[in-house]
Each structure stands twice: as C-alpha cells, then as structure tokens.
DNA sequence: GCCAACGTTGGC
DNA sequence: GCCAACGTTGGC
C-alpha cells in the first residue's frame, strides 16, 4: 500500500514533541472521538504523521512515523477505543504555525483549519509535502 | 428521534 | 480569560 499522511494533535502541556523525542516512541492513547478513531484504524506501518502542538504552541513541530497499527487502547474505560504506536522521526527546522498554514491557499482545505477540534486527521501527499517545505530553514 | 443543556477543545 | 464550535447526554 502506498504511504499515507496524517496529523495528530496534542496539548504540549500534556504530551509534547519534546516528550516524544525523549521517549523515542509512544502509544498514542486517549483518542475518544469516532472520526478520529476511524483515522487511527486506517493508519499503516510506515505512514508519516505530523505532530501538531495545540493551545500554547499552535504549530506543526515534528514528523513521526507509525510503528504499530491500531490496537486496543488500554487507557480507555470502555472497550473499542484504539491507540497506535508512533516514533519520532525528526523535528521541523522551524515550526509551521497555524497562522502560516492559514496563509497558504493550497492548504485551505486541511482539516486542521476546517475542523479545528478533530485530533487525528488525514492529509494528502501534496499537503504534507507543502508543510514539510514550509518547515525547512529559510522557507 | 429531536433538541436543549452541558462539557470540552482550542483559537484568539 | 473568553467564547465559538463541536460532541455528548438526557428529557421528552
């Protein structure tokens, strides 16, 4: 299967990109939204996942990779919720802020903007590449 | 099954 | 800290 691209959100006060870098790998638990769960279930090993920090940072800060597909989320009090395993790949040279994403006409349709409360969302390859480029030094 | 009330998320 | 948007719950 061809590689897919995603974005997950986290409040850095709860779990930050720096935390993932320190841990190297983590179980992405705590998703309690049906739409987000659909996306978690669709993730495949090797898919690239943007790490977006909400609230205080409001920027895409790093790239991670799916290392294990969805399994039962053991932190949930009911069965049926899932988590995936993510590992840190690399930080963006410069964070791509929400404001920056909003400036880009070709990124106007990303769920990050259109559905601000969704915490796990898909991105097209073009959208992913575009944001990666914005995150390069001097972009 | 509808809708009001409420809680949560997240931008500003 | 405020508020809009959204999801969930519960009464009818």
Question: Would you write up a description of this structure?
Answer:
There is one protein chain. This protein has helices spanning 17-23, 34-42, 98-103, 111-114, 125-134; strands at residues 5-10, 25-28, 48-53, 59-72, 82-97, 120-123. The chain has 139 residues and is an alpha+beta fold. Helices cover 26% and strands 36% of the residues. The chain is globular, with a radius of gyration of 14 Å. It has a 6-stranded mixed beta sheet. The chain binds a DNA duplex (12 and 12 nucleotides) through loops.
Task: Looking at this protein, list some descriptive labels.
single chain, 139 residues, alpha+beta, six-stranded mixed beta sheet, DNA-binding
Summarize this, please?
This protein is of the alpha+beta class and 139 residues long. It is built from five helices and six strands; from the N terminus they run βαβαβββααβα. The model has no long low-confidence stretch (mean pLDDT 94).
Beta strands, count: 6
Please state the average pLDDT score: 94
Strand order of the largest sheet: 2-5-4-3-1-6
CA(first)-CA(last) distance: 31 Å
Report the β-strand fraction as a percent range. 35-45%
Order of helices and strands: EHEHEEEHHEH
Low-confidence stretches: none
Question: With helices defined by DSSP (H or I, 4 residues minimum), what is the helix count?
Answer: 5
Structural class: alpha+beta
Biggest sheet descriptor = 6 strands, mixed
Can you give the helix content as a percent range? Answer: 25-40%
* Shape type: globular
Query: How many whole angstroms does the radius of gyration measure?
Result: 14 Å
